[in-house]
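Bug #77: duplicate submission created two jobs. Keeping one. Sequence:
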Amino acid sequence: MSNLNGWGLTARLISKHFGVLGDKVSEAIANFDPETATEADRDRLADTLRETAQKLAAARSSFDKEHADVVKLRELIATDEKASETLAERLAAGKISEATVSLFCDELESNKARLPLEVQEEADAQEYMSELQKIVDALSKQLADFDAAAKKAMQALASANAQKDLQALRAERQEQLSSLSGLKGNSTALNALTRRAQTVSNEAAGLKIVADIAQKPLDQAAEIDAIRKSVSQPDTAGESTLERLKRLSGKSAAAA
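Kept job's structure:
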């Protein structure tokens, strides 16, 4: 069993690298062990889906960050634009230094200049995320289709194997019936046995004839003996006790 398990593991490992081995070798392995090959194909597809889904999750996180940066930057720019009016009034009134206002203006201009770049990065992240979503959807459908097709193929294989076994059994049964038919019609042993039975039957019939011939004189002698006995012995079935006494004393004839 350990050797068989080892070969099964080797076949599965090889099957998981179909792309490296090439179609011909993959087909040969699939023909040798279709169940393991199908499982390996599905594992490879599932691995691809899992890896792509992980990339999609990372892309979503990246997009969320880029989107948050854009929203935050826009809010900051809007706030600074409102604050610029107040700063202008304070600068005119001499309540704030020009250096501070100049620094504020530099930051506002820098943020406005950076906003298109942040928006572009957000758009790129969203496009990348959308493409990965399409790939994940396609892989999910492909995996579902693969499972359905694999189930159908395995059912077809099982049905084909069952039909093969059935036809082999029918062929074996036909061969057995043919052998029995030939044995019944052409068997030397059966023919000899039939002839022997007929010979014994003929011998028995001959012995019966001889026995019947030998028995006939015996039957005739027995019949004659029975007649003699019936004649020599008087009929005493209906005599009375007195008649019996007279017969036994020998006076019956004298009295007559």
